[in-house]
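Task card 7
Instruction: Convert sequence to structure tokens.
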Amino acid sequence: MKNKKIIAPSILSADFSNLSMQIRNVELGGADVIHCDVMDGQFVPNITFGPIIIEAVRKITKLPIDTHLMIKNPDALLKEFIEAGSNYITVHQEEVIHLNRTINRIKELGAKAGVAINPSTPVSTLTEVLDIVDLVLVMSVNPGFGAQKFIPGTLKKIETLAAIREEKGYNYIIEIDGGINSENIKTVSKAGCNMFVVGWSIFGADNITASTMELKNLITNSN
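Output:
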């Protein structure tokens, strides 16, 4: 899956009063994964939702659910989020003390394991776990809010992760989250990224299906 280009609409920007139709619209546009941003108001300055929304999304779609835990002590809730229907669970390097153990625990519980790094966190902090993770999520904004502007320096991290993956023969997916739109998505794709979290540029558009389709076409034809 590391070579596939994946669009992952983030429901953080969706209209929750009409969530079923919003997800249906991105499915029609070719979405590959549904991204769920979980925030607790402690690790990041915002609160979103918990496992109950993951359960609801699981009932709406058959697409994989990519759950990004921006929370304190994620280890305490891994089982709940996986049982709710998450296919991918991503935790933050900045929060998890025993990262190797947490990654293995996620896998034991039946999900794919991801690790996220904030804009100020270097790729080098992940050196010892890149051989076991399924996904590396590079934050291209400071987490906590949607509709932020892309931080250009993030591209270097994508390039570094892609080079390590190629050199070592690793299989992790490189994911990006924050400020992705039709103007920068091809550049990010060419840097080596293959999963693109998109929020406002999809759900804030007049035609959700068309915007999803446009972004999918841009990354499909970026190489």
